[in-house]
UniProtKB/TrEMBL annotation:
The lineage of its organism: Bacteria, Bacillati, Bacillota, Clostridia, Lachnospirales. Residues 138-245 form the GFO/IDH/MocA-like oxidoreductase domain. It comes from Anaerostipes butyraticus. Residues 2-118 form the Gfo/Idh/MocA-like oxidoreductase N-terminal domain. One of its GO terms (molecular function) is nucleotide binding. This is Oxidoreductase YulF. It comes from the Bacteria.
Amino acid sequence: MVRFAVIGTNFITDSLLEAGAECEGFKAQAVYSRTMERAKEYAGKYGIKDCYDSLEDLAKAPDIDAVYVASPNALHASQSIQMMEAGKHVLCEKTIASNSRELKEMLEAAERNHVVLLEAMRPVFDLGFAAIQENLPRLGKIRRATFQYCQYSRRYDHFKEGIIENAFKPELSNGALMDIGVYCVHPLVKLFGKPKEVYAHGLKLSTGVDGSAVIVAMYEEMQAELLYAKITQSALPSQIQGEEASMIIREIPDTTSIEIVKRDGTSKKIDIRKKENNMYYEVKEFIRLIEEKKSAREHNQYSVWSLEIMDEARRQMGIHFPADE
């Protein structure tokens, strides 16, 4: 049994706890919030026993094995390292760190303390992504991948009214790339590795973060376009093009079906039966790594490559976070 504490009391933590309740070996043990009142309110919603308003006390707690970190991106590194230095495993929400330098420090802390650090990158752990991987050989030689995730944010409506919420604050290491663009970058590197070159162009908002952008990634024999936005909504699927066929992917962050379309126009649709809440699969893998005393090194390599690409994309777009200093 892995006893979890959660840092963060928002909708994504709701999803984590709901997914965890379906996982064998998961126990929700504690809630941290900046105020005890909020911690108790949130814990009561899920019948969770322990509450904390001190990260120091949480780190010292002997009855907590692992911590799920769902605070703003700018806090991920410091909070995760604090928990790992206390011997606790960490499942950290995406994007795992503000930049690749922070991630390197986090990985060093994990190694030093012999604990598991894993990015909660839900798309690459679920059965939809497995179906993409399994069917790639049917496409022939891969020449192009176009991944897109453009989701109009209700917070953008507030932004236009002059109300700046966390999602658009550079001091919290946020913006479209860090929030949803990462859902295009991470699957790309897990499928095809780190590209040779990256070119990025984006639309910056008044706060200095990106509202939308395009990243072109060049490989030896293929190219990829990553399109993401928080200020528009896309009606088009993602796709991977090979010399023999193309694969149409519905919802890259939560793939429920793919379609193989051959050059002659014939096609086959593949529906994926899986858990409705696909955070289940990341929690299951995290628990497996802990219980079997396995390394998360392979998973973490994809996180490293992703952040290296995102660092370079932000550099080209002129997007700077205080955490980059």
